[in-house]
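the two lines:
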Amino acid sequence: KNEVEQSPQNLTAQEGEFITINCSYSVGISALHWLQQHPGGGIVSLFMLSSGKKKHGRLIATINIQEKHSSLHITASHPRDSAVYICAVRGGSEKLVFGKGMKLTVNP
Amino acid sequence: EPEVTQTPSHQVTQMGQEVILRCVPISNHLYFYWYRQILGQKVEFLVSFYNNEISEKSEIFDDQFSVERPDGSNFTLKIRSTKLEDSAMYFCASSELNREADEQYFGPGTRLTVT
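prediction for all of em together
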């Protein structure tokens, strides 16, 4: 059974700061997802990674398969980035296993 | 851009009543999923569905739950006799195929409140 841990659990930042959110998992996977959940509850997929690095706008996601670790970076953070960021993994099965999420608050 | 839709956005029901949550997956997708998130907790997998049958289910998905694709577009989750602990946000997702590198697209969720 895969355990997905995220750190930190909560983060408050000032607008413009560079933010890093970490995710580690216990068992080898085939893909890792970064998801964003806004206060209304809806979930939006940000990235799906199986190796290396992906970039979309101000967001960068990296994964180290050997270390079983992924990071999500937000450059030049903005108050609209305030949300819960969730890491979820998939391996050997159809289901996604989710972390608890990290609540990010970006103050103006 | 195509998206997964869910109805209703919020459902309030009394304990013991049956509820049906509805989802319309993205039209060319073949794999469908239900997840739930109890307030303050992790999102949890309930069930996956392909070719008109369940392909995987979790221990949460007991006999009180069932899924169906009654027509070419809807995918439903039925809870036969709701319990207080069924109160949660329920998310539907779909993916084009089931290769492990395929992305799952989530709907906006249905908030179920059992009183």
